[in-house]
Amino acid sequence: MGNGLKATLHEYSSPYGTAKNIMVFYIAFAIFYYSSYSPWWWFDPTPSLAAQWMPARAPFWVATSRDFIWVAFCLWIALVVKKQGDQSWKQLFQHDYPNPQYARIAGIFKGGYIFFLLVALTHLSHKGTTEVLQYDLRNTMMYVLIIFFLPLLNVNNYDVKKYTDLLLKLGIIVASWGIITALFIRSLTFGGRAMSTFDNPNNLGFFMNLLIFLLLPKLLMDSDTRKIWWAAYLVYFLCLIYTASLSSLMVFIVGTTMLIMLACGIKKRGLAILASHFVILTFIVTIFLQMGLLPVFKDKVVGAFIEVGRYSPTVYEYIGGREDTALTSISGRINAISDAKSYSKDSKTTTMDILFGDYSLKIYKTYDNQYLNLFYNDGLLVALMIFGIFTGVAIVGLRKYAVLIRNKNFSAAAILLGLSVFMLLTTLMAFNFSAFLSRFPLNLILYLICGLILTITPATARKQGL
To answer: Using CB atoms within 10 A of its CB, is residue 296 exposed (0-12), middle (13-18) or buried (19+)?
Structure first.
């Protein structure tokens, strides 16, 4: 065992280690959070949850429990760091970063989100305070603090492996429960589509893609990864299928193709693995379809291509009882983008409205598109800022991956490849399908991934047990 790894393990008995373990607890709590809603689903007289948005179905104290625990977690970290470093509160966020690159990008996050906050506060003049606090601050901004907490806790390369392994192991439970509920407990599904411990099938599909993207490069590149993990890969994939999430399936196809090509090369071996990968999975799905085990997948995914020209409006009930109409069909999403173009050209739309959000809105305007939500409510500049920062982090990760490959550190390279490709396709594809950055616990997970990508340092990865 190297000295760096020994020092890291010793640190877990210190207050910093306690804070790290508390963060592990909060990540686990976040992933299983919506399971706390189950008592209210079991006894609901409604035969299907497909027409209701689940967060409205539990008491207020349950819905806000994650916020109180998060605040307590933040205060604990602040107290630990202040005590250990004996520094004033003003100096709390003036700390050393794992590497200069992390410091630069953290500075960009800080500046970008201060701008985001200021823009959001200007909308208090015409929106209700609750709208701004819930949608902008609580749902989209709050968990960016993770970017600054990781360096405060001296998180290093070894911790990156710790947190990614945690996600993979928790994911087995989440995926298995999703499959079980889809097959046997329809009352805990979204009209037959698996949700597992999440509040929405699309959110579960998004999380399954993260696990798949994390695990596939490890199976292809890291000789230390046991082959039994292929069984976990199959469980993740089946859960993804049971979500019947067309957007997640599209991201899966593009992402796994990229991962195999980058991990194995565009040569005979890479092409052979790519072909066999999709042939085997297609065969499994075909068998399940023939056995009648995927009725919702057949109706939702296959039907989406057949009825591509029609709208499929679905009414969701949000916290507070407010109803919105989300056009969730392919044509609905395309027309939403067309509406945004028409809005931009409308003579009543001012330059201020385009750059900083629509100042005539009384409530937060929602679409199944992260960028459209930001565009209408906070303006084009904020939408471009979010796209630029997250895409930039993905590119940084891919560049580090190339260095790790040259250093023949395949274990670290596999983790970084999975995280970076996932982040890249999130900004290029997933954010155009749903507002994942505004959904708990995906917002927390996305900021955590950014921090982990920035934490990995090729020069010290092997010394620190990665």
So the answer is: buried
**Taking the CB of residue 232, how many other CB atoms lie within 10 A of it?**
20
Q: Are 195 and 32 in contact (CB under 8 A)?
A: no
Cis omega (within 30 of 0) for bond into 39 = no
- Condensed to tens digits (0 to 9), the pLDDT of residues 190-202 reads 888 899 999 889 9
Instruction: Indicate the burial class of 108 (C-beta count within 10 angstroms; 0-12, 13-18, 19 or more).
Output: middle
Q: What is the pLDDT of residues 450-459, one digit of tens each?
A: 999 999 988 7
Q: Round to whole Å and give the CA distance between 297 and 291.
A: 13
pTM (predicted TM-score):
0.88
| Residue 331: how many other CB atoms lie within 10 Å | 15
**Rounded CA gap, 119 and 128, in Å?**
15
DSSP letter for 329, please.
S
Domain boundaries, the chain: 3-308+374-455
Q: Point out the residues of the chain with pLDDT beneath 50.
A: 1-13, 45-56, 86, 88-89, 91, 306-327
Instruction: Please give the Cα distance from 21 to 26 (Å, whole number).
Output: 9
Q: Which amino acid, 239?
A: C
